[in-house]
Amino acid sequence: MVLGNYKQCVSARATDRSILARAQDGGIVTQLFAFALDEGIIDGAIVAGQGEQPWQPEPIVATTKQELFAAQGTRYNICPNMALLKEATRSYGLDKVGVVGTPCQMQAVRKAQLYPVGMRYVGDKIALAVGIFCMENFPYQGFEAMTEDFCNVKLESAAKMDIGKGKYSVYTERGAVSQMPLKHTLKFVQPGCHVCLDYVANLADVSTGSVGSPDGWSTVFVRTKNGDDIWAKAMAAGCFETKPIEEVKPGLELVTKLATDKITKNQKHVDERATFGVRADGSGKALRSYL
Ligand code: SF4
After folding, report:
1. Top CATH class, 138-188
2. Predicted model pTM
């Protein structure tokens, strides 16, 4: 169950070559939202746009494909997409909202639907929630230090970043690659990530990430009925090229290994916190046992 419930899992990439050319991996999020916009399944999507600083993400509500395309690519630092959820339905007046986010943000989406404190009339307007695999995340200052101090690349001259094969890699506009071992990035990880037990966005409609698939492709879990319906329509419209996950390398074995590693490592932190009265489930049960 480390991979959560899912109806199907495939390796996929967008068929739109212009999306693929700018994509981090298989262009799944952009292609799926672009299709959903075209079909009226969503009337806008909360995605990570460009913030004030180089490579700093800032949530935006994209209501056109141009805005979606401009937000393509991964920025390895925190983007508070949930902050725009209510705004998207009120100020932007969206009735069918798409939202992309990390596994913890997918938990926030479902929480807003189940316990809509301060989120009245928002939950039923979430039409498509797309999750991205996440091992850990970094505050902007930490990300800046990793890139500029450790990899010796100014953020302004970085063309792409990537995390994989045990390394944080920065590609420059001139084609050079600078890397640091992932174990050295640990001290920059935001504290909340140390108690996070979800790697593959179990609560999303569709979740995706590069791990498990060959370069240029993404692993895709189609999880909910809603996700399955939309994925089936997108497939029928020729949006994606897919391969059975069993036929690609490294496949689900690696996804399972990383998800298990994350849970095992972070469960220790959860247990540790329980010894001084903090429980990850918020029940305060351990604390009460001291009273
Ligand atoms: S590791 Fe968990 S808490 Fe940290 S950003 Fe990723 S999903 Fe969120």
Report:
1. alpha beta
2. 0.93
Residue 77 CB–ligand 1 contact under 6 Å: no
Span from the CA of 78 to the centroid of ligand 1 (angstroms): 9
Compute CA distances 194 → 133, 152, 237, 238, 285, whole Å: 15, 27, 40, 40, 20
Residues shown for the chain: 291
Nearest CA to ligand 1 atom 8: 104
Q: How far is CA 265 from the centre of its chain?
A: 20
Q: Closest by alpha carbon to 107, among 257, 280, 277, 230?
A: 280
- Helix H segments across 123-214? 140-144
Tracing tokens 């909340």 back to the chain, one arrives at: 192
| Whole-number average pLDDT of the chain | 93
- Looking up tokens 């060959």 gives 214
Kindly report, as residue ranges, where domains of CATH 3.10.450.750 are found in the chain.
138-188
**Two tokens, residue 37:** 């916009």
